[in-house]
Amino acid sequence: MFCSAKPPGSVSPARRQIREVKETKITINCVTFPLPGGSPEQQLLKPNEWSYCDYFWTDKKDPQGTTSVAGFEVLLQKQLKGKQMQKEMSEFIHERIKIEEEYAKNLSKLSLSPLAAQDEGTLGEAWTQLKKSLHDEAEVHLKFSNKLHSEVEKPLLTFRCDNFKKDLKKYDHHIADLRKQLASRYASVEKVWSLT
User: For 162-193, what is each residue's pLDDT tens digit?
Assistant: First the structure.
């Protein structure tokens, strides 16, 4: 058994390779940024400083490494997933409200049943207390369903619908302005070309 003596400070080839991979990225505040020159897909706008526009909008390769996914597509997919999640959340809350209302209705119905209403003595008192507690529990579940509706479902639906409609109107107006600018510039270019 021979031990190969390595000079102090030497690094094995496997560790050297890992170190080389790590040197292409840097992490600041739990956000990983590529080092300048480490991302050949897109030229940096501000190469000497850490810039959100450079490091967020960098095109990223898909998992197969065949095509690039633009930063805008990442944002768009995130926004669409958020809309879908809001829709699923509102449906979930709506179902929970229906379940709570149905449960409250059934508890209330059970508390009003005439079973053992004539019993006297300690069993009659216990039975009356049981029915009263069922009625109270039904009220609690009904209040909870009303709170869910007024404080969770309604604001969620309002946020989803209002923001979408406001944003749609705002962007439609902005896009219409841009189209007018494009048409006027196109007409100007056509006019210049017709003069030459």
Answer: 666 677 677 777 777 877 888 888 888 888 88
183 part of a folded domain: no
Dist. CA 43–CA 58, nearest whole Å = 9
Flag whether the pTM goes above 0.85.
no
In a domain, residue 75? The reply is no
Q: Is 96 exposed, middle or buried (0-12, 13-18, 19+ CB in 10 A)?
A: middle
Host domain of residue 48: 23-69
What are the CA-CA distances from residue 30 to residues 27, 48, 72, 109, 116 (Å)?
A: 6, 21, 22, 55, 66
97: in domain: yes
In a domain, 194, yes or no: no
